[in-house]
Amino acid sequence: MNLRKFHPTRRRLIQALLLAGGATPAMLAMVRLAGANSDVPVIPGVQEFKGIFKINGRIPRIHQVVKPGDVVTTGRNGSGIIIIGQHAYMIRENAELEFYAEDFEITEEGQVSGLIRVASGAVLSVFGKTTTRIETPFATIGIRGTACYVDVTPARTYACVCYGKADLVGAGDNKLLETVKTTHHDSPRYIYKRGARKRIETAPVIDHTDIELRLLEKLVNRRPLFDKRKKRERSDRNDSY
Q1: Bridge-partner residues for 141, per DSSP?
Q2: What is the rounded distance in angstroms from the CA atom of residue 150 to the CA atom of residue 145?
Q3: What is the pLDDT of residue 30?
Q4: pLDDT for the residue numbered 24
Q5: 169, 241, 233, 231: which is closest to 199 by C-alpha?
Q6: Residue 32, CB-side half-sphere exposure with 13 Å CA sphere
């Protein structure tokens, strides 16, 4: 695996996961089981962080649980991974997120629903069964059990539904801009503020990778849908002989 293409902050975080440098016991177990079918207990809360990474203005403890209304902020070289219920989040530098401030709900199966506000920065997320919404200054992404990468800048929101289904709704008027259903980064979009000449447009796949998605899914004992699909296709080909 060539990590040189990653931003230094992301590279250090991935190396911690893959090489166990400062990784938590849960991460070590996941790395050892890479490629295996065995499940290990999902440990909620903060899994790993680098640089400036705070919850409600304070440096967190490893495995500190993130509660409804908690605000996570990162600095220039900050990043971290959080698990809430059956969902995992990789938060990038210069970000500000408020987790589940409204409509918070948790089922007996540990599925969490609610509203996540991303004021700035980027987050890569993988979700279990959920009705979670990700709200940004320009759009709301209505999640229906999927993986999603969101990057918020002063000019626009970037949203890539990596796999699964989501409604992209404009901020300010709650206008449904598009419903996307993807299997492998098929429909990334730029979304602009209300009144812009173009409200939504096609975007490239930027700044997130399948490696990171696999790491996040492994932390909650899952595999990305595109890997499951490839496995089924191989199995179908073998059955045909």
Answers
A1: 134, 168
A2: 15
A3: 47
A4: 47
A5: 169
A6: 11
Between CA 10 and CA 91 the distance in angstroms is 10
pLDDT for 100: 85
Strands 115-126 and 133-135: parallel
CB 167, CB 134: distance < 8 Å? no
Question: Which two three-digit tokens encode residue 70?
Answer: 């908690």
Encoded amino acid at 156, one letter: R
CA distances from 55 to 49, 103, 169 (A): 11, 20, 28
Q: Of 65, 53, 54, 63, whose CA–CA distance to 24 is shortest?
A: 63
Mean pLDDT, 10 residues at a time, the chain of 241 residues: 46 51 46 52 91 97 93 95 93 95 66 87 92 94 91 97 95 95 95 95 95 92 83 49 47
Residue 182, C-beta contacts closer than 8 angstroms, at least 6 positions apart: 161, 162, 163, 164, 165
Give me the residue spans of the domains in the chain.
42-239
CATH class label, 42-239: mainly beta
pTM: 0.81
